[in-house]
Amino acid sequence: MKRLDFLAVLLILIANPVMAADIDGRVAWSQRVDMSTPVSGMVAEVLVNAGDKVEKDAVLLRLQPDRFDAALRSANAVKKDAQYKLKEAEREWDRAQELYERTVLSDTDLQLAENLLVSAQAEFAKAKAQQINAKRDALESVVRAPFAAVVLQRHVEVGQTVVSRTQAVPLLTLAATKTYHVIGAVTSSYASKLATRQAVTMTINGKSYNGILAAIGYETLTGTDTYPVTISFSAGDDVLREGQIATIHFP
Predict the structure, then answer these.
(1) What is 178-219 written as a DSSP string?
(2) Residues 55 and 169 in one domain
(3) Under a CB-based contact definition with an 8 Å cutoff, are residues 217 and 153 in contact?
(4) By the 8 A CB rule, do 122 and 11 touch?
(5) Distances in Å between the alpha carbon of 108 and those of 27, 77, 130, 144?
(6) Backbone phi and psi for residue 191, each to the nearest 5 degrees, phi listed first
């Protein structure tokens, strides 16, 4: 009876093989970005250094604000004047239509009133666009963290002039700290048994992390016959370093 039970279990295992393996991997950044600004100016403040941890939307750097503030005040004034002239043109147009309907205004005068209205509308639209651009430039003169990150490199100092007319200048280099990747390698036969989004665990510095299989490569790693696999995971409050050794535990 016991032998029959053993054979039954063996048949089940053969029909449904358990795929388990541990492979080596290394920690990689899920996001690494060079921070810059599309506007030019002089650096007034750099609030971070290499190695600092920052939260999403934290201010990293400010350009000298005087020029941007002046441009915004000018754009606001131009828009206010254009808005006043547009209202005047609208009133004149309404008055011209009324007089025209009473046959006390010529076709030429009606056309002139319409031309003034169209011109005022165009000037207001232009002034509004200038105000939007001035607001955007003022906003972009302040560089903020796009996500929770660690500062890898600082490329700029206070007093340095940033010229971004033709090409954005890297100011700071950041790497995301909420989500990391671990990159490993598997054989072709093993890769065919894997599926993206499947749960995976990892051990890094003796600590266990839960993740998902984010990608399975279709091209071999240079000089090998293995394919890269990418695990995506959250490290919580832990800050890891690129290149740290990890062990990936496939179920």
Answers:
(1) SEEEEEEEE-HHHHTT--TT-EEEEEETTEEEEEEEEEE-SS
(2) yes
(3) no
(4) no
(5) 76, 33, 33, 56
(6) -60, -35
In a domain, 107, yes or no: yes
For residue 247, what are the CA distances in angstroms to 133, 177, 201, 242?
50, 19, 9, 14
**What 3-state class would DSSP assign to 97?**
helix
Q: What is the pLDDT of residues 185-214, one digit of tens each?
A: 999 988 989 999 999 999 999 999 999 999
The predicted model scores a pTM of 0.78
Q: What is the rounded CA–CA span in Å between residue 85 and residue 36?
A: 39
Task: Establish if 2 belongs to a structural domain.
Answer: no
- What are the φ/ψ torsions at residue 22 (nearest 5 degrees)? -115, 130
State the DSSP H helix or E strand holding residue 133, giving kind and residue range, or none if neither: helix 107-140
Residue range 24-59, pLDDT digits in tens: 999 999 999 999 999 999 999 999 999 999 999 999
User: What span, in angstroms and rounded, lies between the C-alpha atoms of 21 and 36?
Assistant: 43
Q: Residue 216: beta bridge partners?
A: 229
Of 87, 120, 140, the residue that ends a domain is 140
Nearest to 61 by CA among 165, 167, 174: 174
Mean pLDDT of 101-118: 92
Residue 7 lies in a domain: no
11: in domain: no
